[in-house]
Specification:
This protein has about 190 residues and is an alpha+beta fold. The chain contains four helices and five strands; from the N terminus they run H-H-E-E-E-H-E-E-H.
């Protein structure tokens, strides 16, 4: 057999109708459209996050409107936040905050959401816990403000230090457990 050579980039994602993502064989046309549109929305969200990070990094403000992206970018610049900052506790526990800053004993964690699904502050709380673990802060000794930018609205909440402490303890415990399991499996 003489096989046709296809030269695809090594980092190219699988095709939507690929063998490795075979669940589509059970879809009807309506579900195919719904799932495909969700994938496109996720891709658009990633591209918008990349654009926002570049705008923030270069201090390029957008027109002062209630549009989600405009509010997010302008607030991040105004509060002098760092975009796409990795918070690292261990190889088992880390994450990238959309925009984060720590000034005057106040931690700000901002998140840009492009979808319409209702979101919660759970992700922000994990970022706050990772920040405290990585940089040696105690949640009771700092103020933590969390913001979600979505659907042309800004939702703001203060983190409960008890809850952040609980998440920090859970990260430590689960990290130790995973590390032990890895050693037992020779990983």
């Amino acid at each position: 057999m003489r096989w046709t050579q296809h030269y695809l980039p090594a980092n190219r994602p699988h095709a939507f109708l690929s063998a490795s993502k075979y669940h589509w064989i059970k879809y009807d046309e309506e579900k195919l459209i719904r799932v495909y549109m969700m994938q496109l929305a996720a891709q658009k969200g990633s591209e918008l996050h990349d654009l926002a990070a570049r705008l923030i990094k270069h201090g390029i403000k957008l027109p002062d409107t209630t549009a989600t992206m405009n509010q997010y970018v302008n607030d991040a610049i105004g509060f002098m936040l760092t975009p796409e900052q990795v918070l690292f506790y261990s190889e088992n526990s880390y994450g990238t905050a959309d925009a984060i800053g720590f000034r005057n004993n106040k931690l700000r964690v901002h998140d840009l959401k492009n979808g319409i699904t209702v979101t919660y502050f759970s992700q922000h709380k994990v970022y706050a816990a990772l920040f405290c673990l990585e940089y040696g802060f105690k949640p009771f000794e700092i103020e933590i403000e969390m913001r979600i930018y979505q659907n042309d609205e800004v939702r703001i909440e203060s983190a409960d230090p008890d809850e952040i402490t609980h998440i920090m303890d859970k990260i430590r415990t689960f990290d130790n457990l995973i590390t032990t399991l890895k050693k037992e499996e020779g990983l």
